[in-house]
């Protein structure tokens, strides 16, 4: 595997690929493969990659993988529609 990786590094350098571009290519492809292996389950894919699920979602949005968007966060049912309460107290 080390030889294959070294050959890939040589190809990237010969193709004038900058480090940041190479890291992005590798990161994007690893995320895509992890999602394929996990059947699209983000929790399982994040475990394969060794990152938190929120990090995976952020990177998926960054690389426009999947739907390219995060799910909208919802307020808890008990707080929906109410304005935040201020605390009254001596300062």
Helix count equals: 4
Residue runs with pLDDT of under 50 for 5 or more positions: none
Distance between the termini: 64 Å
Strand content: under 5%
Quote the average pLDDT: 86
Global structural class: mainly alpha
* Rg over CA atoms: 21 Å
Keywords:
91 residues, mainly alpha, 55% helix, 0% strand
Layout: helices, strands, pairs:
Layout: H1 2-14, H2 19-37, H3 42-49, H4 53-62
Helix pairs in contact: 2-3, 3-4
Give an account of the 3D structure:
The protein has 91 residues and is mainly alpha-helical. The protein has a domain of 27 residues. Helix 2 packs across helix 3 and helix 3 packs across helix 4. The chain is elongated.
Summarize the structure in short.
The chain is an all-alpha fold and 91 residues long. Helix content is 55%, strand content 0%.
């Amino acid at each position: 595997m080390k030889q294959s990786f070294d050959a890939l590094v040589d190809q990237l350098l010969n193709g004038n690929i900058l480090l940041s571009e190479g890291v992005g290519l590798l990161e994007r492809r690893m995320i895509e493969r992890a999602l394929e292996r996990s059947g699209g389950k983000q929790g399982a894919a994040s475990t394969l990659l060794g990152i938190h699920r929120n990090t995976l979602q952020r990177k998926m949005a960054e690389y426009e993988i999947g739907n390219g968007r995060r799910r909208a966060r919802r307020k808890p049912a008990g707080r929906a529609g109410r304005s935040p309460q201020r605390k009254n107290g001596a300062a």
